[in-house]
Write a structure and sequence with these properties.
The complex is a heterotrimer of chains A (about 120), B (about 450) and C (about 550). By secondary structure, chain A is an alpha+beta fold. In chain A, about 20% of the residues lie in helices and about 35% in strands. Chain A has four helices and nine strands; from the N terminus they run βββαβββββααβα. In chain A, the strands form two sheets. A six-stranded antiparallel sheet of chain A has the order 1-2-3-9-8-5. In chain A, a hairpin with a 2-residue loop joins strand 2 and strand 3. Chain B has 13 helices and 14 strands. The longest helix of chain B is centred in the C-terminal third of the chain and has 40 residues. By secondary structure, chain C is of the alpha/beta class. The chains are: A alpha+beta (about 120), B alpha/beta (about 450), C alpha/beta (about 550). At the B-C interface, helix 1, helix 2, helix 3, helix 4 and helix 5 of B face helix 1, helix 2, helix 3, helix 4 and helix 5 of C.
């Protein structure tokens, strides 16, 4: 299993795509597969402050529920409203259309604490 | 009488297949120090003997000849057809419908139940049932706390004292404070909650105002104004309603209720010494994820056939565990089916007749009591089918009448000292003119 | 797939051809419309008399209901004839599997036979029509029944006190933890004891209940034998722990063979020992938590004591408590106020009343946690449970556990070669298999296996619980199933295991003979349709076209 190599990954199966001080976050295909058909996502609000590794929302599937842990600290500048009506995007395109939020990074060096694609692939076996 | 089919030969065969010589070997892992000693349980009984025992116990009850008792449980007609429906073993001996392919009977009947409760209450979503009206109300209050993120609840003293006791117990769990909003108990007063008094109790950390319609004393509350007062304070309005009254009274969804709780016992469930009953809960779709209890939803199968499933299960304890909104698992499904069958059997016209008859007989009762000079209304203002009347020396006379087989309602004075000399009298479609005459005469005789 | 290749339709369910599922291209099964769809304006079933003229006369002059409180439109309840109504519910009933139709080996639910004499008893008018607030002199039979049932439950569990008030097992758990907290508060430790320990095999209600009482849940791992890890437990116990909630036998169907040490460790640490009594069917007459160091246990009358499950309730969850928790029991409590308890019991066991005996409801209990529900409990279930216990009696109750444990171990031995057994030990009344082998080797999950079982007129075992077993399959036969039924089940399970290897697609297509096939649960949750849409097309909120059939094996015409 290989994962997009332009992303960084957390142990809790979230990813972040950094672009200078801006970033996009989401959950990985591994998480989405484990959860099964995702039916609901509790999205953060724009303007909310995230703290790396702290919970920021909840994702629910038919048979499971899971906290979302922020892979980075920062301020939410935008959330993916499409997920409200189509949470299934998290299953079908978790790294693309299924992005969860855009976050202005508080501290880009936090990315060092995350894994690269190869390490994440090894971690998830 | 036992129900195991196993013969000695069957048991021997199983022991051999397992590879042990006696069933004792299968209990060898119980530490010797905690093996049960002897117990004092009576010998088995054959069917005719156990029937005799239950007949003995039933025989120690005395049915009143005349009863005006309500106060939370009401004697209504349970149509014969309702008993037939819930007596079907496919409904009674099946489990929670976790395997929907073989549970469409249960699932569809719950969907119909949810639909009926939404229709009666004017709300958007109803759960598959709770234990009873009081626990439904308590869970509604806690739901309001989660929705508003506030930690106090206000409840009108017009809500049944027992409901409020259950609310206190449930709120003690997460440490939610319960504030009681007094009602006007004065003689000739309204017997209801004053919206300004309610507004005064609604600080900005109060999650909801809970009021009953009709209230415990039979009086009709100014529910629209109470809902407005709650909303003005950023709180939710929880309405506790009586289901048969909803044939006539405005649906709580139309007067601003955010969550509705009710006791469904009047809908085809016998009084049965207090249980099993059925708790009803309904809310707006926007709050559905905070609503406890099971929910059934419509969907399609792989061939496109319509079917029903338990849904939004990620709210519940078996998935969310310590993060669940409530721990509820088993609810009151068969009683919800009884309510569904009842509402189908009576239909809108029948439910209207039930409500009308109850109300007519309540007014007849008050008129007859006042004409005889033995009692008069404690409160002014409109009432439904239960009424609080002033009776001199109520407790003594209630006891005397009880010995004669006449249950003159409930004594609210036990919980509310200011109502010491009153009786709470309920009438239903089963109350006859002769019953009323008997009560009036008996009260005259004990003056 | 062409019609020629469509699998042979085998209806082993016993349900009959009328309700067989379609297997691609055939006539769809009977769909029973919603009752609202049968409604026709002005049809009626039950009628009521009209109020007398005298009544209306007498009642005139009372305050009118103001228009502002009145409903503007009548509720749209169904308008159907009594016959149509009955047919509707009977046809719905036909769509259900039930104990009265076939085997129902749901682990942890104890789906034993529900005796009909219990129903006869619950329907006795003097019991069914007794009002909970009637003067106590009129309710001596109801009160005596509750008192006697409590006495029997005390004997069965070894606890000196019992409350019948909780409406279900989870409600009993709530009651038990509220009492634990009251106990700790009375000892000045209410603020410091903030945690509840549960094993990782615990039923979801345990941690959910802890949360409802404001406790933090700490999970204790199980050891390799399937019991709670005693060292981990001892390490976790301390002055900040309010209670341990444990099930014995565990949810793995295994007796905790160190339960004596568990109970001792909990007691010594000052915590309350809570026993989840869901698995009592395994240990009647063999182990009594109340005399083995525990403080509180809930009973499930709808499991061990045969009251019907009703499609999801009503149940009843009475609690037994130790003497140190007794002061905190919910109010009111049925008590004997006049008469000698020994004499009353002796007489009752011999089928006699004690005329001098008088029962009452005691609400004067200052340390009580209060009320957990309206009135006194699910009385209708007490009648059934009392009837059941008296029917079985001393030897019958013991025999229940003997036969339940025998049957479960029999199934264990007949199936452990074809399904993985994570804990290869003597079971009690239920046995947990794992579908791990089938999943890894053939991609067939426990869910698929469960759906395949449906085609044989058998309800599947509990699946995916407990959480600590991968692809869990929990089988509880109970003591009321004949050897033929057990052997038939073994045959079905072995056949499915074999077909998992030879024809896995046939398992993944199941069920094929049920009234509906696998349902789209994701759509149900994403676009909830939770009530009938009056005025629109029936089920307007449901998707207009069927979802894309899953690629794993759905037949196409």
């Amino acid at each position: 299993m290989s994962y997009p190599d332009d992303l960084r990954y957390s142990k809790e199966h979230e990813w972040v795509r950094a672009d200078g001080s801006q970033s996009t976050i989401g959950i990985t295909s591994f998480a989405a597969d484990e959860l099964g058909d995702i039916v609901f996502l509790e999205l953060p609000e724009t303007g909310a402050t995230l703290k790396q590794f702290a919970t920021f929302g909840v994702v629910e599937s038919v048979k499971a529920v899971s906290d979302l842990f922020a892979p980075v600290s920062g301020t939410v500048t935008e959330v993916n409203e499409a997920l409200r009506d189509s949470p299934e995007l998290l299953n079908s395109d978790p790294f693309g259309e299924g992005w969860i939020a855009r976050v202005e990074l508080a501290d880009p060096s936090e990315l060092d604490a995350l894994m690269d694609a190869e390490a994440y692939a090894a971690e998830t076996g | 009488m036992t129900y195991s089919p196993h013969t000695d030969a069957d048991r021997a065969l199983m022991l051999e297949a397992i590879g042990v010589s006696s069933v004792e070997d299968l209990f060898a892992d119980i530490p010797a120090s905690v093996r049960a000693g002897s117990w004092s349980i009576p010998a088995p009984l054959a069917e005719q003997e156990v029937r005799a025992e239950l007949t003995r116990l039933a025989g120690r009850n005395r049915a009143p000849e005349v009863s005006f008792l309500g106060a939370g449980a009401y004697r209504h007609l349970v149509p014969s057809v309702v008993g037939e429906v819930i007596g079907r073993p496919e409904f009674s001996t099946s489990y929670t419908p976790y395997q929907p392919e073989v549970s469409q009977g249960t699932l569809q009947s719950i969907y119909e139940f949810q639909s009926l409760i939404c229709e009666l209450t004017g709300m958007e979503v109803a759960s598959a049932s709770h234990y009873d009206g009081a626990t439904a109300m308590a869970e509604a209050a806690l739901m309001a706390c989660r929705l508003t993120r506030r930690h106090r609840v206000a409840v009108s003293a017009g809500v049944s004292p027992d409901y409020r006791r259950v609310l206190e117990t449930y709120c003690s769990g997460p440490g939610v404070e319960v504030i009681t909003v007094p009602i006007d108990l004065a003689e000739g007063g309204s017997g209801t909650t004053d919206p300004d008094v309610a507004a005064g109790a609604l600080a900005d950390d109060v999650a909801c105002l809970v009021a009953a319609q009709p209230n415990f004393y039979g009086q009709l509350e100014p529910v629209r104004a109470l809902a407005d007062a709650a909303h003005a304070a950023g709180a939710l309005f929880v309405a506790v309603v009586e289901p048969t009254s909803l044939a006539i009274l405005q649906a709580p969804g139309d007067y601003g209720a955010d969550i509705v709780a009710a006791e469904g016992q009047p809908l085809g469930i016998p009084v049965s010494f207090g249980g099993p009953y059925v708790g009803l809960m309904a809310a707006r779709m926007a709050s559905v994820r905070q609503m406890p209890g099971r929910l059934v939803g419509a969907t399609r199968d792989v061939q496109g056939r319509k079917g029903y499933v338990l849904t939004l299960q990620a709210r519940e304890q078996h998935i969310r565990r310590e993060k669940a909104a409530s721990n509820i698992c088993t609810n009151q499904a068969l009683m919800a089916l009884a309510a569904t069958a009842y509402l189908t059997a009576v239909g809108p016209a029948g439910l209207r007749e039930v409500a009308d008859l109850g109300m007519t007989q309540a007014r007849h009762l008050v008129g007859a009591l006042e004409a005889a000079g033995v009692a008069e209304r404690r409160f002014s203002g409109p009432y439904f089918a239960e009424v609080t009347v002033r009776v001199v020396d109520a407790a003594r006379r209630h006891a005397v009448l009880a010995e004669r087989g006449i249950v003159a309602g409930h004594l609210p004075g036990a919980d509310e000292p200011e109502l010491r000399d009153t009786l709470l009298l309920a009438t239903t479609e089963l109350t006859t003119d002769a019953d009323i005459e008997r009560l009036v005469s008996a009260l005259e005789e004990t003056a | 797939m062409s019609v020629a290749e469509a699998p042979e339709r085998r209806d082993a369910s016993g349900r009959g051809a009328a309700f067989s599922g379609a297997a691609g291209g055939e006539e769809l099964t009977i769909v029973e419309p919603l009752i609202f769809e049968r409604s026709r304006a002005t049809r009626r079933a039950v009628r009521f008399p009209t109020a007398s003229a005298r009544a209306r006369e007498r009642g005139a002059g009372q305050p009118e209901l103001p228009a502002s409180v009145l409903r503007s439109e009548a509720p749209r309840l169904p308008e159907v004839s009594e016959l149509d109504m009955l047919r509707h519910f009977n046809r719905l009933a036909h769509l259900n599997h039930a104990i009265d139709l076939g085997f129902y080996p749901l682990g942890s639910c104890t789906m034993k036979y529900n005796p009909k004499v219990n129903e006869w008893a619950a329907r006795l008018p003097a019991l069914a029509e007794s009002h909970p607030l009637d003067p106590e002199a009129l309710s001596q039979g109801s009160l005596e029944l509750m008192w006697l049932l409590a006495e029997l439950l005390k004997e069965i569990s070894g606890f000196p006190a019992v409350s019948l008030q909780p409406a279900a097992g989870a409600h009993g758990e709530l009651t038990g933890l509220l009492m634990a907290r009251a106990f700790h508060r009375a000892n000045g430790e209410g603020e410091t004891r903030t945690k509840v320990l549960v094993p990782d095999s615990a039923h979801g209600t345990n941690p959910a209940t802890a949360t409802m009482v404001g406790y933090e849940t700490v999970t204790i791992r199980s050891n390799e034998r399937g019991g709670i890890d005693l060292d981990a437990l001892r390490a976790a116990l301390g002055p900040d722990v309010a209670a341990l909630m444990i099930t014995n036998p565990s949810t793995l169907g295994i007796f905790e063979d160190q339960i004596d040490q568990v109970a001792a460790a909990v007691r010594e640490s000052g915590a309350i020992g809570y026993m989840d009594g869901a698995n009592l069917n395994a240990i009647l007459g063999r182990y009594r938590p109340g005399e083995a160091g525990f403080d509180v246990m809930h009973f499930n009358l709808h499991k061990t004591f045969s009251t019907p499950h009703g499609g999801g309730g009503p149940g009843a969850g009475p609690v037994g408590v130790s003497s140190r928790l007794e002061p905190f029991l919910p109010v009111p409590l049925p008590v004997l106020v006049d008469g000698d308890p020994d004499e009353v019991r002796r007489n009752a066991w011999a089928g006699r009343s004690t005329p001098r005996a008088r029962f009452a409801l005691d609400a004067d209990r200052p340390q009580s946690i209060g009320k957990v529900r309206l009135f006194y409990g699910n009385f209708g279930m007490f009648v059934r449970a009392y009837t059941y216990i008296r029917s079985n009696g001393d030897s019958g109750l013991r025999g229940i556990s003997d036969d339940a444990v025998l049957a479960a171990n029999y199934l264990r031995m007949r199936l452990h070669d074809v399904y993985d057994l994570p804990y290869d030990r003597i079971s009690k009344h239920e046995v947990v298999f794992s579908g791990r082998r089938q999943k890894r080797q053939h991609g067939v999950t426990t869910l698929d296996i469960a759906k395949a079982i449906l085609d044989h007129g058998i309800h599947p075992p509990t699946i995916y619980f407990p959480l600590i077993v991968e692809e869990a399959l929990m089988v509880e036969p109970t003591e009321t199933e004949s050897l033929e039924t057990l052997d038939h089940f073994v045959g079905v399970m072995r056949d499915i295991a074999a077909r998992t290897e030879s024809d896995p697609e046939s398992i993944k297509r199941a069920p094929m003979t049920t009234p509906v096939g696998r349902l789209d649960e994701a759509a149900a949750a994403r676009r909830p349709d939770l009530r009938y849409a009056f005025g629109a097309d029936a089920g307007a909120a449901a998707p207009a076209t069927p979802p894309e059939a899953p690629t794993r094996g759905a037949p196409t015409a």
